[in-house]
Amino acid sequence: MSVTYLIEFDVKPAERERFLQLLGGVLDAMRHEAMFVDAALHADPANDNRFLLHETWKSHEDVLTVQLARPYREAWHAALPDLLAGERKISMWQKLRDDQQVASA
To answer: What is the pTM of this model?
Structure first.
């Protein structure tokens, strides 16, 4: 069963561009993984340095045992203590329903 992670980041203002650059590289690489479903990065309209990452994978076990150890994540993980103003908030969710806009005829 797929799993979705919601990850909240509070980024140090001086590190915003570096945060986006490093995360962008990870997101660009993730989309080619067989177990990857989708991801969306959101910005808080009230705070330029607060972000929410919505990430869905086919298997939580694969994320823990394979994906987190991918070489393209090394620089990202190493930089997090310097980039963030506080700890990431990570929660896991399972989809119950998925609605999409219906194209009108």
So the answer is: 0.90
101 belongs to a structural domain: no
Q: How many C-beta atoms surround the C-beta of residue 13 within 10 A?
A: 9
Residue 40: which domain range? 3-93
- The 36-44 sheet, strands edge to edge: 36-44, 47-57, 3-10, 89-93
Q: Does residue 31 form part of some domain? A: yes
How many domains would you assign to the chain? 1
What pLDDT is attached to residue 2?
93
Residue 100 resides in a domain = no
Exposure of 11 by Cβ count < 10 A (0-12 exposed, 13-18 middle, 19+ buried)?
A: buried
Residue 45 lies in a domain: yes
Q: What b/e sequence results for 27-64 when a residue is b if at least 16 CB atoms lie within 10 Å of its CB, and e otherwise?
A: beebeebeebeebeeeeeeeeebebebebbbeebebbe
Q: Which residues pair with 84 in a beta bridge?
A: 11
